[in-house]
TrEMBL record:
Compartments reported by the entry: Cytoplasm
Entry similarity comment: Belongs to the ATP phosphoribosyltransferase family. Long subfamily.
Keyword list, A-Z: Amino-acid biosynthesis, ATP-binding, Cytoplasm, Glycosyltransferase, Histidine biosynthesis, Magnesium, Metal-binding, Nucleotide-binding, Transferase
Reactions catalysed according to its record: 1-(5-phospho-beta-D-ribosyl)-ATP + diphosphate = 5-phospho-alpha-D-ribose 1-diphosphate + ATP
Reported regulation of activity: Feedback inhibited by histidine.
Gene responsible for this protein: hisG
Protein name (database record): ATP phosphoribosyltransferase
Free-text function comment from the UniProt entry: Catalyzes the condensation of ATP and 5-phosphoribose 1-diphosphate to form N'-(5'-phosphoribosyl)-ATP (PR-ATP). Has a crucial role in the pathway because the rate of histidine biosynthesis seems to be controlled primarily by regulation of HisG enzymatic activity.
Record's keyword annotation contains Cytoplasm: yes
InterPro entries reported in the protein's UniProt record: ATP-PRT_HisG_long (IPR020621), ATP_PRibTrfase_cat (IPR013820), ATP_PRibTrfase_CS (IPR018198), ATP_PRibTrfase_HisG (IPR001348), HisG_C (IPR013115), N-reg_PII-like_a/b (IPR011322), N-reg_PII/ATP_PRibTrfase_C (IPR015867)
Pathway: Amino-acid biosynthesis; L-histidine biosynthesis; L-histidine from 5-phospho-alpha-D-ribose 1-diphosphate: step 1/9
Organism: Embleya scabrispora
Database matches in PANTHER family: ATP PHOSPHORIBOSYLTRANSFERASE (PTHR21403:SF8), ATP PHOSPHORIBOSYLTRANSFERASE ATP-PRTASE (PTHR21403)
One Gene Ontology CC term in the entry: cytoplasm
Residue ranges occupied by any Histidine biosynthesis HisG C-terminal domain in the UniProt entry: 212-283
């Protein structure tokens, strides 16, 4: 039975579970359920703290897990990404009170040398300092609400997850320097582990959800002499389906198009004479 770790709390929990549900797996009904068996799919789900997931997967106790790239890197666990899920995107950045942040932005990484840095992700900060050959006066590990650490005098700068930037702005802090990393939810397995048919099936199902979420199916009718122009607008993934219509001189075209471009493509198709343009959602797919 495939054993998969799923975040039980926090920003990743709900979107990860929703994606697994969309991929046809049973998901828990109550937030207190910690283990759930899905006998139809021969899978067992373990609902764990997102921060711990890379440790379980890296140790080989679980076959795969969903966690954040930042949490994976911070853990130092022997686990690797096998699929990017595009959920819960965030950057991981240094920040400081506005005037200091501007000064540090000009100095580059060496400006961090000798400062006290507070973070919930000390592993990432340590690695960043080592990579740039600089030493901090102290790395202060905190559980959360890191933004307050400077005001309370335990740190000079912080390193934290930034999504909208609202929390930083409210604390009077500004980011400086390039993001240390760009994070999102990822599917991980033990580094170098051999893949299995069951794990490949999970990956294919999740890929199917990603495609179903980001593409729609577009159908339209167009005169034969315009079909070449039309299919350059809707090239599909491999090639669009073109079928004859009962009315001579017209064909029907069917192609997948990126969801975010659908309205613009419909406008462009209309301009070149396409009619009966229909867009439908894709519920699932294997490409
Ligand atoms: N606004 C956000 N705040 C925190 N983490 C976020 C945010 N957006 C995305 N993430 C990602 O979620 C993961 C952190 O999840 P985790 O459950 O540890 O913290 P959390 O969402 O802040 O929950 P909590 O602090 O309530 O425990 C990381 O991979 C992080 O990049
Ligand atoms: O850029 P934003 O959209 O403001 O989101 C980022 C903030 O959200 C998280 O804190 P959270 O609310 O999880 O509290 P915590 O610090 O106690 O974990 C994170 O640690 C940042 O503080
Ligand atoms: Mg948090």
């Amino acid at each position: 039975m495939l054993r998969i770790a799923v975040p039980n709390k926090g920003s990743l929990s709900e979107p990860a579970s929703a994606m697994l549900h969309e991929a046809g797996y049973r998901q828990r009904k109550h937030s207190k359920e910690l283990v759930l068996t899905d006998p139809d799919n021969n899978v067992e789900f373990f609902f764990l703290r997102p921060r711990d997931i890379a440790i379980y997967v890296g140790s080989g106790r679980l076959d795969a897990g969903i966690t954040g790239r930042d949490l994976l890197m911070d853990s130092g666990a022997e686990a690797e990404e096998i699929l990017q899920l595009g959920l819960a995107p965030a950057t991981f950045r240094y920040a400081a009170p506005a005037p200091i942040a501007r000064e540090l932005a000009e100095q580059g990484k060496k400006g961090l040398a000798g400062l006290r840095v507070a973070s919930s992700y000390i592993g990432i900060v340590q690695r960043d300092f080592a990579e740039h050959g600089i030493e901090a006066a102290a790395l202060v590990k905190l559980d959360g609400a890191v933004e307050t650490a400077i005001q309370l005098g335990v740190a000079d700068v912080i390193a934290d997850v930034v999504e909208t930037g609202t929390t930083l702005a409210q604390a009077g802090l500004e980011v400086f320097g390039e993001p240390i990393l760009r994070s999102e939810a990822v599917l991980i397995r033990r580094a170098g582990a051999e893949t299995s048919p069951a794990l490949e099936q999970l990956v294919r199902r999740l890929q199917g959800v990603l495609v179903a979420r980001s593409y729609v199916m577009m159908d339209y009718d167009i005169r034969v002499e315009r079909v070449e122009a039309a299919v350059t607008l809707t090239p599909g993934l491999e090639s669009p389906t073109v079928s004859p219509l009962h009315n001579e001189g017209w064909v029907a075209v069917r192609a997948m198009v990126p969801r975010k471009n659908a309205q613009q493509i419909m406008d462009d198709l209309w301009e070149i004479g396409a009619r009966a343009i229909l867009v439908t959602g894709i519920h699932a797919c294997r490409l």
